[in-house]
Amino acid sequence: MVVKSGRFGPYVTDGETNASLRKGDDVDTLSVQRAAELLADRRATAPSRPAPRRAAARPAPRRTATVKPAAAKKPAPKKTTAAKTAAKKTK
User: 32 or 68, which is more confident?
Assistant: First the structure.
């Protein structure tokens, strides 16, 4: 068992399990029995389960334009082109 100083304060470890020291525990006066108790308590508690992840928001499916049947379409009127007249040459 080793007492180490970590990011969130001192903790005791046996190489496999880590247990934080309580507020009343002091690193200098920590006994082997107290360290064993902390590790045993830590092993007895079930590991905390991570919160279930929410599904990522998916974009709404694109709606395709609905094609309405057209009422009887009238054909577009044909454009009449003026007949080209040949220009007469004058002498």
Answer: 32
CB 21 within 8 A of CB 9: yes
Is the separation of the CB atoms in 22 and 37 below 8 Å?
A: no
Rg, the chain, Cα only: 43
Assigned token pair, 18: 């880590």
The pTM (predicted TM-score) of the whole model is: 0.50
Buried b (16+ CB within 10 A) or exposed e, 19-58: bebeeebeeeebeeeebeebbeebeeeeeeeeeeeeeeee
CA-closest candidate to residue 31, choices 52, 3, 69:
3
- Determine how many CB atoms are found less than 10 A away from the CB of residue 16: 7
Long-range contacts of 20-24 (CB under 8 A, 24+ apart): none
